Fold this protein.
Amino acid sequence: MSFPRLITVLCALPLLAACSLSQEELDRIADYRQRAAQYYDVNDLTRAEQQARLGLEVDPENGELQHLLGRTLLKKGDHKSVQLAFQHLEIAHREVGDFKTAYSLGEYHLRHAELLIGSAAILRDKARLLSVDEKGTLASMQADIDDRQDRAVTHLETALDLLDEALGQRQEWVEALQHRASTLAHLNRDEEALVAIEDLCTVLKRSRENKNSRLATQDFDLPQETFWRDSLRRDILWEVEARGLASSILMNDKNWAAAEIQLSKILMLSPDRASEFYNRGLARYFQGSLQGAAHDMRSFLGKTKLEPESEQVIKALSILQEFEG
């Protein structure tokens, strides 16, 4: 049984560019940059891209605008946009060269690798449907799968170098720590990925403690309180996703006891997640704790929206029947 690995991602914005332009041109660039950033922040990516490109018509080597355009294309997420992001993020990293541009270029390589891994998986599924009489086609598809996997590894190794560069300048950057853990997991460097996840969760725990302290001891107006509570919820979600990745690694390695610990920590943070009850039920079942497994499977069945004929529901019911006996 294979447990999918959660990968997640977030954004950052750039800093400074320098060029010998007239004051009027500099003012125009500043206006385009400001509007592009505002559109980016509200997820109006079409207008963000438009404003960044207008600014780059004035100054094609502007590192800030190149970075902002690259981030906008990354945020779009489709295969074509991710590919187009590369040239802009590479220029931004060359022109600015700070931890933000290193992070963004690293994110590009991670995203591109994930697209290659996904397309290789689709090809692999198609290859399984071929008959033995289609050996030539199968050999060609396998060569394509191997090529995509090899290119994915190259992108992942580059991503890791760039993320390490960013973290060398900003050690507790949550998004960079997230991407680093995901990159290590994709490279099957599981022990290092688990260490990276624990480092991330330590940072998130400190962040939550700080925000809870602020909310308990300081008086905020409503917008400020909403900001801090939203930020606190985001920290919780990030830790849930990080520990979800850890539990996936551990369950794939059949390390049931360690997986159970991760899943229990997730359920302490987010007690209504049906899939975590199911996975913890399996982890307990494979450790021989039938009572604990049955308890979790009851919780899973009470929360899941899966159809009765789904594999997970059928497995949960079979564990309950075995327990009730």
Notes: The chain has a mean pLDDT of 92.
